[in-house]
Amino acid sequence: MERPEPELIRQSWRAVSRSPLEHGTVLFARLFDLEPDLLPLFQYNCRQFSSPEDCLSSPEFLDHIRKVMLVIDAAVTNVEDLSSLEEYLASLGRKHRAVGVKLSSFSTVGESLLYMLEKCLGPAFTPAMRAAWSQLYGAVVQAMSRGWDGE
């Protein structure tokens, strides 16, 4: 697989990483729009959220958003050597599988990520940037998918 264009990734992430919680919330709001069935997977103390808004404003979920943004941040930092994150990403995959996440849902997460970047960057989010991010995200999911292989 070709390596994504590091400079395009870093440059576009700089704007997003200044307010990770705000942008992460955009990503997850979009995710719940596209795949509402994911909402019940997020339960804290056995409490089901009544709506995406309810979920997106809970402290536990905001913590999850922060973690997701940190994972993306790590991928951006290691964009030229993603293999260094392989073990970490595979274990992240196993954690997601354990709570009932399907691997197929990660393509929706990818769409939501691109949506968030586009919302954040506007016209500065060029087709070349979109392609670079699609490549990077694809590589991250490929590494995480090892968590579903039952290795």
UniProtKB/TrEMBL annotation:
<keyword id="KW-0349">Heme</keyword>
<keyword id="KW-0963">Cytoplasm</keyword>
<dbReference type="InterPro" id="IPR009050">
    <property type="entry name" value="Globin-like_sf"/>
</dbReference>
<comment type="subunit">
    <text>Monomer. Homodimer and homotetramer; disulfide-linked. Mainly monomeric but also detected as part of homodimers and homotetramers. Interacts with 14-3-3 proteins; regulates the phosphorylation of NGB. Could interact (ferrous form) with G-alpha(i) proteins (GTP-bound form).</text>
</comment>
<protein>
    <recommendedName>
        <fullName>Neuroglobin</fullName>
    </recommendedName>
</protein>
<dbReference type="GO" id="GO:0046872">
    <property type="term" value="F:metal ion binding"/>
</dbReference>
<dbReference type="GO" id="GO:0020037">
    <property type="term" value="F:heme binding"/>
</dbReference>
<keyword id="KW-0813">Transport</keyword>
<keyword id="KW-0408">Iron</keyword>
<dbReference type="InterPro" id="IPR050532">
    <property type="entry name" value="Globin-like_OT"/>
</dbReference>
<comment type="similarity">
    <text>Belongs to the globin family.</text>
</comment>
<keyword id="KW-0496">Mitochondrion</keyword>
<keyword id="KW-0560">Oxidoreductase</keyword>
<feature type="domain" description="Globin">
    <location>
        <begin position="1"/>
        <end position="149"/>
    </location>
</feature>
<keyword id="KW-0561">Oxygen transport</keyword>
<dbReference type="GO" id="GO:0005344">
    <property type="term" value="F:oxygen carrier activity"/>
</dbReference>
<dbReference type="GO" id="GO:0016491">
    <property type="term" value="F:oxidoreductase activity"/>
</dbReference>
<dbReference type="InterPro" id="IPR000971">
    <property type="entry name" value="Globin"/>
</dbReference>
<dbReference type="GO" id="GO:0005829">
    <property type="term" value="C:cytosol"/>
</dbReference>
<comment type="function">
    <text>Monomeric globin with a bis-histidyl six-coordinate heme-iron atom through which it can bind dioxygen, carbon monoxide and nitric oxide. Could help transport oxygen and increase its availability to the metabolically active neuronal tissues, though its low quantity in tissues as well as its high affinity for dioxygen, which may limit its oxygen-releasing ability, argue against it. The ferrous/deoxygenated form exhibits a nitrite reductase activity and it could produce nitric oxide which in turn inhibits cellular respiration in response to hypoxia.</text>
</comment>
<keyword id="KW-0479">Metal-binding</keyword>
<dbReference type="GO" id="GO:0005759">
    <property type="term" value="C:mitochondrial matrix"/>
</dbReference>
<dbReference type="Pfam" id="PF00042">
    <property type="entry name" value="Globin"/>
</dbReference>
<dbReference type="InterPro" id="IPR012292">
    <property type="entry name" value="Globin/Proto"/>
</dbReference>
<dbReference type="GO" id="GO:0019825">
    <property type="term" value="F:oxygen binding"/>
</dbReference>
